[in-house]
Design a protein that fits this description.
Bound molecules: NADPH dihydro-nicotinamide-adenine-dinucleotide phosphate, L-homoserine
Structural class: alpha/beta
Largest sheet: 11 strands, mixed
CATH architecture of the largest domain: 2-Layer Sandwich
CATH superfamily of the largest domain: Dihydrodipicolinate Reductase, domain 2
CATH topology of the largest domain: Dihydrodipicolinate Reductase, domain 2
Distance between the termini: 53 Å
Helix content: 25-40%
Strand content: 15-25%
Number of domains: 3
Radius of gyration: 25 Å
Number of helices: 14
CATH class of the largest domain: Alpha Beta
Length: 446
């Protein structure tokens, strides 16, 4: 039998903005998987321009054809032979300019930039809608894990009620490595940077800002709203000390960097913070730079999406898959397929942090005196904070003057009540250091 002729159309031209960890991965993947990509799309994807700031260090990540290099972002976007602009420069200034310019010029856009999307969601998606252009962003949340596609397509007929995610690979890598080896925080952060996981400014990772950006994107997608990132209660992992890892383990928990969103019907709850997670939960086993999102939805119930949340090739995989999907859309529209209607975002209120209800791990460094425990319990009780477990150790404090360490696990309490109790406790004469608070993941069993 004669081999059927494989029909391909003309190549799709791409302008690649940024050639760092992810940009380098995109070049490598398009090169290594060129035949499979062409077979799946029915056309080649051809990088026709690569924009960098400094051409002299352009091939530090991967060898490239230097004739493709330019430093002129606007000229690369405007080229008539470019169909897809791929924004991988990061940040929100130049990146916003190039994404809006590309969409205004009728180019389709792929971006991995969660900061840009979270902070300018309505503006960039409005621009895409007006231009009739595609804006895809799978790599922006959880790197290579196809969570955006799962929520947008797999769960298109469902209604998400809550999600618990480990969405920052760097923070998860640091906490898991500290838990396994008790090595110093800064050494492990340096390692995460060398492995290409961290943001250009790693304070975004360890301070929780990157996870808040991702949570805003997820919440916008799941709940049809536009979340104000500044309204997401955000704590980083930088305050976690080895002593907290020890106590967590002793109580049967693991400390994980969580991003949590919940639809309360009227208002949305959204928060990012390290949390004690029961060691038996699936999320407790997500280690290293791996990410996972545990979703509770009305029809499907619980489902979990897991994989590499950062790094060169996993992230590039998500970017190139977006290019393939855009290519398919381009061919479908050329054949007369209609564009799906825009999703309408309805502004939703956010649940104030003081009103959230969860369980708490509280660590106190106190003087070695009779009646200290009683004083702590009295204040907590007066604020309606009920105790589930307590341990008291002598000579175990993080600082020498903390002669006695008391660790309390509470039952579910209102955040505002816990904070009011702690403010009072901090002023007791027997308390030697500000109390440490870590929330406990306590609802459902992610
Ligand atoms: P890098 O810092 O490794 O690379 C950024 C690249 O963009 C560099 O080549 C840089 O050039 C270039 N660049 C920055 N600004 C400009 C500009 N104004 N004009 C031209 N080139 C510019 O970052 P990553 O590749 O790690 O990240 C890229 C994006 O992907 C970010 O938005 C990040 O949040 C996101 N992301 C990253 C993941 C990862 O695992 N690393 C995972 C998921 C998303 P130069 O080196 O000369 O400064
Ligand atoms: N810096 C990010 C992380 C990269 O560590 O998760 C992936 O978005």
């Amino acid at each position: 039998m004669p081999t059927p002729e494989r029909r391909t159309t003309k190549p799709i031209g791409v302008a690649l903005l940024g050639l760092g960890n992810v940009g380098g991965g995109v070049v490598k993947l398009l090169r290594d998987n060129a035949a499979a990509i062409e077979a799946r799309l029915g056309a080649q994807i051809e990088v026709r321009a690569i924009v960098v700031r400094d051409p002299d260090k352009a091939d530090r990540v991967i060898e490239i054809d230097r004739a493709l290099l330019t430093t002129d972002l606007d000229a690369a976007i405007a080229r008539p032979d470019i169909g897809i602009v791929c924004e991988l420069i990061g940040g929100t200034t130049d990146a916003k300019h190039v994404v809006l310019a590309a969409l205004a010029a009728g180019k389709h856009v792929v971006t991995a930039n969660k900061a840009l999307l979270a902070e300018h969601w309505a503006e960039v998606f409005g621009a895409a809608e007006r231009a009739g252009a595609d804006l895809y962003y799978e790599a922006a949340v959880c790197g290579g894990v196809p969570i955006i596609r799962a929520l947008r397509e797999g769960l298109a007929s469902d209604r998400v009620e809550a999600l618990h995610g480990i969405v920052n690979g760097t923070s998860n890598y640091i906490l898991s490595t500290m838990a396994a080896s008790r090595r110093p925080f800064t050494d492990i952060l340096r390692e995460a940077q060398a492995l290409g996981y961290a943001e250009a400014d790693p304070r975004l990772d360890i301070g929780g800002g990157d996870a808040a950006h991702k949570l805003a994107v997820l919440a916008n997608l799941c709940f049809g709203t536009t979340v104000d990132v500044a309204a997401i209660a955000t704590d980083g992992i930088d305050a976690i000390e080895p002593i907290d890892l020890d106590y967590a383990e002793r109580f049967g928990y693991v400390i994980k960097p969580l991003a949590i969103a919940r639809d309360h019907g009227g208002a949305i709850e959204a928060r990012v913070h390290p949390a004690l997670v029961p060691a038996s939960w699936l999320l407790a086993r997500v280690a290293g730079a791996k990410n996972a999102v545990y979703v509770n939805s009305y029809a499907l119930g619980p489902s979990m999406y897991y994989g590499a949340g950062a790094g060169m090739l996993p992230t590039a995989m998500a970017v190139v898959s977006d290019m393939i999907e855009i290519g398919r859309n381009m061919f479908a529209r050329a054949a007369g397929a209609p564009r799906p209607p825009a999703r309408v975002a309805t502004p939703r209120a956010m649940v104030p942090l003081a009103e959230i209800r969860t369980r708490y791990y509280l660590r106190f460094g106190v003087a070695d005196q009779p009646g200290v425990l009683g004083q702590l319990m009295t204040v907590l009780g007066a604020h309606g904070v009920s105790i589930a477990q307590v341990v008291q150790d002598t000579g175990r404090g993080a600082e020498p003057e903390e002669k006695v360490t008391v660790v309390v696990l509470t039952h579910t309490a209102r955040e505002g009540d816990v904070r009011a109790a702690l403010a009072e406790i901090e002023h007791l004469a027997v308390v030697r250091a500000p109390p440490r608070v870590i929330r406990i993941a306590s609802e459902g069993s992610p």
